[in-house]
Amino acid sequence: MEKERKDHSFIKKPIYPGGNEAMKQFIKDNLKYPKAALENKIEGYVALKYEINYKGEVNKARVVSGLGYGCDEEATRLVKLFKFQVPKNPRKLRVKFSKSIKIHFKLKASKSTQINYSIKQSDTEKDKPQSNSSYSYSIKIE
Predict the structure, then answer these.
(1) Are 47 and 71 spatial neighbours (Cβ–Cβ below 8 Å)?
(2) Residue 79 vs residues 18, 22, 60, 72, 84: alpha-carbon distances, Å
(3) C-alpha span between 61 and 75 (Å, rounded)
(4) Calpha distance 109→118 (Å, rounded)
């Protein structure tokens, strides 16, 4: 007979519903690139430390290293939207948890496709004066 393993962690940590992938998707869906950062083409990471209360809500968030141009404020706003599931702790302790995260601000690359083609004369048109033409087009896809 196999013995049942006891849970040795006295305090249960909060869990984001859906795990890290769900958290990444939440950030991707809700991130609003600040206008000043867009105009100045600012990219990089904003590192934050945040505190989760016993209800699973983020009540404090502070920037450890930031980018400026509104990115720090946007990262703080996003983190304060997080809602965690906090398992019941023994003895009904109200514990605060600290976590850290890096939020990546990356500009979307403009997608452009370049099409090149040239027109050449066929054998039947060789008697006519030669005119080789070459065209180049750039198509921007948004």
Answers:
(1) no
(2) 16, 14, 9, 11, 11
(3) 9
(4) 29
- Supply the range of the domain harboring residue 65: 19-105
Give the pairing type, strands 111-119 and 58-65. unpaired
CATH of the domain at 88: 3.30.2420.10
Alpha carbon distance 75, 81 (integer Å): 10
- A 10 A CB-CB count for 75 gives 26
Quote the pTM value: 0.67
Query: In 48-101, which residue ranges form alpha helices assigned H by DSSP?
Result: 71-80
What digits encode the pLDDT tens for the residues 38-87?
A: 999 899 999 999 999 989 999 999 999 999 899 999 999 999 999 999 88
Quick one: which H or E segment has residue 22? helix 19-30
